[in-house]
Amino acid sequence: MSKPQKTKKILITLLLLIGLFPTIWAVWSIFSGSLMAKDELNHTIGPVISGREGMASWPLLPSYPTLQPLTELLLDTPQFFVMFWNSFKLVVPSVLGQLLFGTPAAWALSRFRFRGRKALLAFYISLMLLPFQVTMVPNYLTINSLHLMDTIWAVILPFAFSAFPVFIMTKGFDSVHRSIIEAADVDGAGYVRTFISIGLPLGVPGILSALVMGFLDTWNAIEQPMLFLKTPSLWPLSLYLPRIAEEKLGVAMVSSLIMLLPAALIFLFGQKYLVLGIQSAGVKE
Question: Domain extents for the chain?
């Protein structure tokens, strides 16, 4: 490797590390905060949380590490386990719905040629670009007319029929070469057989990348549960953390760390599929 190439590689590495530093510092702050006693937390970041006068600070390491916040969370906070389970009850059906309904829709948009196909794709893209604040009122009116308010289905159904996974899967299916589909037609395979035997195996990168992003989106959702769920016993963990941040700051730190683990594990597991999905979306026949 020549000297200019080495210099370029070093500069790129430094820029990536600089961009990565805020994320690393945020995760480290949560980890170190979960080992701080209540008095130390109130002294360091109490002014920010409670709004009282004073300067906030954050030490690199806790002065006196303790497992008291973890013990309090596991032994004295039963509502945490209820809301942790509620998060999975929202996420798992939502992701399964994206798989069951989004995958066939994406295959049809990718492989079938029909009148109005481009307009339908443009409609999906427009829905994908709209933020929740824009679609909030139509979603609320629809859920209310179906008498699903204050039920977990009020959150699950909009995520299960989201347009974004369909768009990602469609781009993944576009990378399947048409010659393979034509060979299956010559062998007498029908639409369903071709979809199951060829589309699903070859579209795995796009499917898994969409499901990974769907999991992360649903797991961290705040606005949808806040709007549709009025009963606190139905709330997911994403609504639990802001409620206890001021009263039980140490417990909130430990809860944040535990909430981060499933999302981090899913991302680490699906990282290669995210990359493959992006690569396959850029491949043309």
Answer: 3-66, 76-281
**From 1.10.10.60, 1.10.3720.10, 3.90.1150.10, 1.20.120.530, which CATH number describes the 76-281 domain?**
1.10.3720.10
User: How do the pLDDT tens digits run along the chain, 285 residues long?
Assistant: 567 777 778 888 888 888 888 888 888 888 887 888 777 777 777 666 665 666 667 777 787 888 888 888 888 888 888 888 999 999 999 999 999 999 998 888 888 887 888 888 888 788 778 888 888 888 889 898 999 999 999 999 999 988 888 888 888 888 777 888 878 777 777 778 888 888 888 888 888 888 888 898 899 888 889 889 988 888 898 887 777 766 677 788 888 888 888 888 887 776 666 666 555 555 444
pTM, whole model, 2 decimals? Answer: 0.79
DSSP secondary structure letters along 21-84: HHHHHHHHHHHHHTTS-HHHHHHHTHHHHH--SS-----SS-SS--SHHHHHHHHH-HHHHHHH
